[in-house]
Specification:
By secondary structure, the chain is mainly alpha-helical.
Length: about 260
């Protein structure tokens, strides 16, 4: 984990480039769509969009941190770690936790701009959002690490990661309300684990705002399983369980293949 933090400190340009896309989503796309999207009240579309973009801001950083295991293998650093007096499971946990911390730290820079879109800097809200960011980062890093245990070249890892990242981002409801979606799109959204990070974050933010009844209906996310409205706590618990499963599976595969 310390190695991942040192790499972040030495590569400040990466921080700026990773923040560029979320800023464009919020302030350019959010402003453009806000002129045609009716939120049902005075709440800005950028306010609605911000939690989703914040959640997806960890997507690329966390996933690429996960697949960096392929780089370590290709350049021989993984071999050096393997001869160290630590377990293979510790290597996987260190990679996952390090990637999650780096992705979360980068996203906190974006979170600092929340006030520019009308989101209050309430301490409890900031803690809730930071916790969700870390959980989402750990989930995505674990997924990247699991892929890295099976992928042997960086030429393969990059397109495979892109193949997963883009659908996860667009099917999470980060960029649009999930209310009233067509059945096929609603099913895909519910199958996407990132949805259960995006929607709790959006719920936490919108709960802090004085919304009209129309805004509540259009903007506040409601996820149902077989007609049961899933509480935010259950959504986050599902993400935590899935994350633990991915890390455990990655460690097991790593032990058998390396």
């Amino acid at each position: 984990m310390r190695r991942e933090l040192l790499r972040l400190r030495q590569d400040r340009a990466r921080i700026l480039t990773m923040l560029l896309q979320p800023l464009l989503f919020v302030f350019v796309m959010g402003t453009g769509l806000g002129s045609i999207v009716d939120t049902g009240g005075d709440t800005s579309f950028r306010t609605f969009l911000f939690p989703g973009v914040l959640a997806t801001s960890v997507l690329f950083t966390a996933a690429f941190a996960g697949i960096s295991l392929v780089w370590d293998r290709e350049f021989g650093f993984l071999r050096e770690m393997m001869v160290a007096p630590i377990s293979r499971g510790a290597i996987i946990w260190g990679k996952c936790l390090g990637g999650a911390v780096v992705a979360t730290v980068q996203s906190l820079l974006l979170l600092a701009l929340a006030g520019t879109v009308g989101i209050p800097y309430a301490p409890v809200l900031l803690l809730q959002l930071t916790g969700c960011l870390f959980l989402g980062s750990l989930l995505l890093t674990a997924l990247g690490v699991l892929l890295s245990t099976r992928i042997r070249t960086i030429q393969t890892a990059m397109p495979v990661s892109q193949l997963l990242i883009m659908p996860m981002m667009f099917l999470s409801g980060a960029l649009f309300p999930i209310a009233g979606l067509p059945d096929w799109l609603a099913v895909l959204t519910k199958l996407n684990p990132l949805t259960y990070v995006v929607q709790p974050m959006r719920s936490f933010v919108l709960d802090r705002l004085a919304l009209t009844a129309a805004e509540q209906e259009r903007l506040v996310p409601v996820i149902t399983w077989a007609g049961w409205e899933v509480p935010v706590g259950v959504q986050l618990l599902a993400v935590a369980v899935l994350t633990l499963g991915l890390v455990t599976l990655a460690a097991r595969v790593f032990r058998t293949t390396e």
